Amino acid sequence: MLDNIRIVLVQTFHPGNIGASARAMKTMGLTRLTLVNPRCFPDAEATRRAAGASDVVEQARVVTSLEAAVSDCVQVIGASARLRSLPLPHFDEPDEMARTLVANAERGPVALVFGRERYGLTNDEIRHCTHQVSIPANPDYGVLNLSQAVQVLAHEVYGAWRRADNAVPTASPSHGPLPTQQQLGYFHEHLQRVMEGSGFINQPHARTSDHLHALFARAQPNRKELSLLRGLLSSLEAHLDPPS
Question: InterPro entries given for it (predicted)?
Fold first, then answer.
């Protein structure tokens, strides 16, 4: 199940931070590393800082966009300071995040996303996430190095996995398979098209879209439910633009 959990680093500037993050991952049983547009990779400094985790560095997947890094994921959690301008669901406590991530990793790939060393993730990148998480720290000095942040959250994930692995199974209804981020992206594009076509919104970047994105992230519809919603949108769209 830990193989379904990937760590995504976005535009890492210092190659040493890639190696140190790989080391932090491996100590917690995580080996799936994805790099989005790293400034310098591969690099000897990344391998040196990885120490005994050089295999994680060597097997890292390199992609050109965050969208490509997480398109097949059923949950994507962005590690950042809380952005109140974006109404995504937010985990105030990392242990709560870890329990949710581990549970969803049983159903498909999931990702923890970390931004640039100096200014983290952009608003547009956060929009590719389903949730946010922050690491509680000294309010007067809450600065963590990239690899330290990876270590803290990876430790929480490993602890949640150990507890879940040792827990006595209890019967619970199946929620059904979750959609990937690519499938959710198609849904949000469809929803946006219908909202604009109906005149419900008339500004491409209206806050309404962000709030609806957050609503469906909280609701976490499964694939069948998402298909029903897409069918509803298609029906509405047909009435908005009837064939001539």
Answer: Alpha/beta_knot_MTases (IPR029028), RNA_MeTrfase_TrmJ/LasT (IPR004384), SpoU_MeTrfase (IPR001537), tRNA_m1G_MTases_N (IPR029026)
